[in-house]
Amino acid sequence: MGLKQEDEYPVFPATEVRPAHSKILNAVISDGNWYRKQAEYVFTYVRELRRYFHNNPEQVMEERGTSEKICEELEKLQIPYTIIPSYGVVGIIEGEMPGRTAALRADMDALPIQELGNPPYKSKNDGCMHACGHDAHMAMLLGAAKILAGHREKLCGNVKLIFQQAEEIGAGALIMLRAGVLDDCSAIFGLHQSAEYPTGSFFMDEKDFTAANVIFKVKVSGGGGHGSQPQLSVDPVVAASAMIQSLQTLVSRETDPEEMAVVTVGYINSSTSRCNIITEEVEFGGTIRYRKTELCEVFEHSFYRVLRNIGAAYRVEVGIEYHNVCVPVYNDPVLADFTRQVLESLAGKEQVSDRMKTAAAEDFAFYQQQLPGMYFFMGSGDAEHTKPLHNPYYDINEDALIEGTAAYSKLAADYLLSTKEQDYEPEGKRFVGKS
């Protein structure tokens, strides 16, 4: 079951009411060495899973085989699970002591990229690659599941394992939320690895952490003609060029210099490739990123104003598609402080930076509109693994799998232990999105 066309891009409001986590009165940060040793113990298992997923990538809304593999592993671990429409999987580990339910999330989908590197586990699916590291995320969460399921006596409550589809188009979290997967949870944690940072390091911040993501597509239609007689045509190439240049003023002239904002045009296509033909139509598209939610309406209004006015000036017709894909990730301050302590107990204070923000976008943000959540980055690079995410040569230092497995499992166990005697009801709890 896939998304309906109108559901492909979610809608979100210009202002947010964020659910807030109550103060953790008695944070219990357990021995980091124990979780590291457990992660080292399951490392071979995690590495083989990561290589399987890397070797068998599946794109957005096509993650059938990936889903089946996850279900197979959960069955081996005797973890009950539910299959969510469009190939999502949710497992539940019940602890031996009563308490809350904490959620851990990993994304599943790969990218439409041809892998150009040659690791022994290279993608065998032409034109499809795990270039964003979701293969590692799934493997590390399964490794954490193996640790936690084998030590239920340490859990003062339950751990929900969310294997989410369709992150790359910002739709998977909405599917999960509509299925009610967080209805009984009090907090959710997620991570993302990147080879741009050294293995063993962690990066995070409280409040706004990632950017909102807008995707746009513009069609500029004119009247074609011969390149030697432009006066007899209406040239959409010149008009589109003026539009692309002017869109940059949304950042340079209409946004506070202290606010993060980016406008990028990622492609431009013409209906002809001949040098002596003035084309009938030009299409270009790209993305807009910003971190301050109040900029949502500002950017959308200005985007339409600039393009329509330029279109009128150049006598072309302008068709605009403008989609707000996802909101900024907002890390709950209480959970951010708790997560920092957990990660420092694993890696050491010098390896944890708590003042990092990013222009990347993540549909994890939709979970945080329903309940408090925490999302952070971890390093997976070394001297041989330095390519950025979405690069056709992307690969990781697999030693980083130990770090992520330990982080996943320790965050869940320590959170449940720290909150076992506290009543919980987040303020402002709600879900925003198309129904």
Number of helices: 11
The name of the CATH topology of the largest domain is Aminopeptidase
Please give the domain count: 2
Which series of helices and strands comes N to C?
A: HHHEEEHEHEEEEEHHEEEHEEHEHEH
Mean pLDDT equals 92
Provide the spatial order of strands within the biggest beta sheet: 1-2-4-3-5-16-6-15
Mass-distribution shape: elongated
Overall description:
This protein is α/β, with parallel strands linked by helices. It folds into two domains: 28-210 and 329-417, 3-Layer(aba) Sandwich (Aminopeptidase); 212-326, Alpha-Beta Plaits (2-Layer Sandwich), CATH 3.30.70.360. The protein is 31% helix and 24% strand. It is built from eleven helices and 16 strands. The strands form four sheets. An eight-stranded mixed beta sheet has the order 1-2-4-3-5-16-6-15, sandwiched between helices. It has a four-stranded antiparallel beta sheet with strand order 10-12-8-13. The chain has a two-stranded antiparallel sheet with strand order 7-14. Residues 1-15 and 430-435 have low confidence and may be disordered.
